[in-house]
């Protein structure tokens, strides 16, 4: 037996004992009154501080069109932390964090406000030792990027020097189609070189998504079956039980495919289907993701292999739930989909002939994200037909959330005098195997921004390739001029989505 001499592509275990702590820096946040800032970003910053991963002099600067003083902003952060932080509230951590909080009030087109912002961060550089290292987090609609980016550039805040760095963090949606994504990228690149642009796809910050890399590339047993010799289809699901909540302004006109498939689900597809990168450095990882996204294509028959739906009023979970059109501020003639399913094919040796089915929806029966590889039937079953009547297909399911882990499904003998075979599950659960709790995706990603560690951030090329897959589908749906098919709130989506899989001899999983 030859022993492998290849270095382990995962981090050297010794490295893991040294916490990765960000150096002195300031985070400037635009969009501080938004949901994302208060529910995710502010709590994540506190959690990082609480875990000792932020430098003592860390500074957080809010910029918004509010008539607020720094104390008011600090209170907003305080309330957000108290309500949403993952780790316990500790007065001493909060005290240290709050000393670095500042607020600058102003409009995005107000030069004087950006002068004040510059002055504020320069003062912090002195007072807190942040040394000119600044990350600008644009948690704002992309339509506002040109204004902010232009201001940062003209006020000399976007430059990275030999002794300090300036980075910009942008949130999806990265455009609403290929063209607008390119335009957006041009705007951002007028001020920031691509190495300073951190595009957030928060799914990549999830532990279970990174575990996909561990599962595939730290083990020998999966790779031999990870191809079209053994796998006959792949299902990637992100289902949510909630509706659009108060997000009508954002969601209507965008829809489920742009909101989730273009980014989260195509990233999951890329990580599932890509070849092994030579290392997990950004350049290598991105190269593999790009290669597989370039080989992925939308279905030829868009009528048969795409489905879109919209939740309709129904009884769900014992209460009457309104339909999408009943949500506040949704126009009655809206054609936005709240459910989308598509088939993607990958034209390469590994995956030719294996359909990847992607689906996402709001108001589904439960919140669940998973990647399921379905395996071919054994070529020969030396049993009586009735013995295997309850044998489905073998499956490997990566449970991304909320019940984090991995399931292997296979057939086993039912105890008794007959050879009767039934499906069973073998489960790995994060909670049962590790005592450490999983950090929130935003903790990891914000820390990586501050550390300047780019592997978990998709590059513009990936964004473009994803739009190339989605654009024909969106154009096709728009050309129909009809609203999406209704599905009852609390169900697994429209009938056309079931028909889409049935056509290929498969059925959606009901996790
Ligand atoms: C966001 C989408 O990117 O992801 C939301 O814009 C969605 O519509 C959210 O609700 C889901 O994130 P998570 O981490 O709860 O699966």
From TrEMBL:
PROSITE patterns: G6P_DEHYDROGENASE. Residues 213-509 form the Glucose-6-phosphate dehydrogenase C-terminal domain. Pathway: Carbohydrate degradation; pentose phosphate pathway; D-ribulose 5-phosphate from D-glucose 6-phosphate (oxidative stage): step 1/3. Substrate binds at residues 202, 206, 240, 259, 362. GO terms for molecular function: glucose-6-phosphate dehydrogenase activity; NADP binding. Signal peptide: none annotated. It holds the Pfam family G6PD_C. Residues 28-211 form the Glucose-6-phosphate dehydrogenase NAD-binding domain. NADP(+) binds at residues 65, 107-108, 172. Its EC number is 1.1.1.49. This is Glucose-6-phosphate 1-dehydrogenase. It comes from Microlunatus endophyticus. The gene is zwf.
């Amino acid at each position: 037996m030859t022993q492998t001499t290849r270095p382990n592509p995962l981090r050297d275990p010794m490295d893991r004992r040294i916490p990765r702590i960000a150096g002195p820096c300031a985070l400037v946040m635009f969009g501080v009154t938004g949901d994302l800032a208060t529910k995710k970003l502010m709590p994540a910053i506190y959690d990082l501080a609480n875990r000792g991963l932020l430098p003592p002099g860390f500074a957080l600067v809010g910029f918004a069109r509010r008539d607020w003083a720094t104390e008011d902003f600090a209170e907003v952060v305080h309330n957000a932390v108290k309500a949403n932080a993952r780790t316990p509230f500790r007065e001493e951590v909060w005290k240290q964090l709050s000393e670095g909080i500042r607020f600058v009030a102003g409009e995005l087109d107000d030069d004087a406000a950006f002068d004040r912002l510059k002055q504020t961060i320069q003062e912090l550089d002195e007072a807190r030792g942040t040394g000119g290292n600044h990350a600008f987090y644009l948690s704002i609609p992309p339509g506002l990027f040109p204004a902010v980016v232009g201001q940062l550039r003209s006020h000399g805040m976007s430059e990275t020097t030999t002794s300090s760095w300036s980075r910009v963090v942008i949130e999806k949606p990265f455009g609403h189609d290929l063209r607008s994504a390119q335009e957006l990228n041009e705007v951002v690149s007028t001020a920031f070189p691509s190495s300073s642009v951190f595009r957030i796809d928060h799914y990549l910050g999830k532990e279970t998504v990174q575990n996909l890399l561990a599962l595939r590339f730290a083990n020998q047993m999966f790779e031999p079956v990870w191809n079209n010799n053994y796998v006959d289809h792949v299902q990637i699901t992100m289902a949510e039980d909630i509706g659009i909540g108060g997000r009508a302004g954002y969601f209507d006109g965008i829809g489920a495919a742009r909101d989730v498939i273009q980014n989260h689900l195509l990233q999951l597809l890329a990580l599932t289907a890509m070849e092994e990168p030579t290392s997990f450095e950004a350049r290598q990882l991105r190269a593999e993701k790009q290669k597989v996204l370039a080989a992925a294509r939308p279905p030829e028959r868009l009528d048969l292999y795409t489905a879109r739906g919209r939740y309709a009023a129904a009884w769900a979970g014992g209460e009457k739930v309104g339909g999408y059109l009943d949500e506040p501020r949704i126009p009655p003639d809206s054609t936005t989909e709240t459910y989308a399913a598509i088939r993607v094919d990958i034209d390469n040796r590994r995956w030719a002939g294996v359909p990847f089915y992607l689906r996402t929806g709001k108001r589904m029966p439960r919140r669940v994200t998973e990647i399921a590889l379905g395996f071919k039937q054994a070529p020969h079953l030396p049993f009586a037909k009735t013995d295997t009547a309850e044998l489905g297909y073998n499956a490997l399911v990566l449970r991304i959330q909320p019940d984090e882990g991995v399931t292997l499904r296979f057939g086993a003998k039912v105890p008794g005098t007959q050879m009767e075979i039934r499906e069973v599950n073998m489960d790995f659960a994060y909670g049962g195997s590790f005592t450490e709790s999983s950090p929130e995706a935003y903790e990891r990603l914000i820390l990586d921004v501050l550390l300047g560690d780019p592997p978990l951030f998709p590059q513009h090329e990936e964004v473009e390739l994803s739009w190339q897959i989605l654009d024909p589908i969106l154009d096709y749906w728009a050309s129909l001029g009809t609203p999406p098919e209704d599905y009852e709130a609390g169900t697994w989506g429209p009938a056309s989505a079931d028909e889409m899989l049935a056509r290929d001899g498969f059925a959606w999983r009901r996790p």
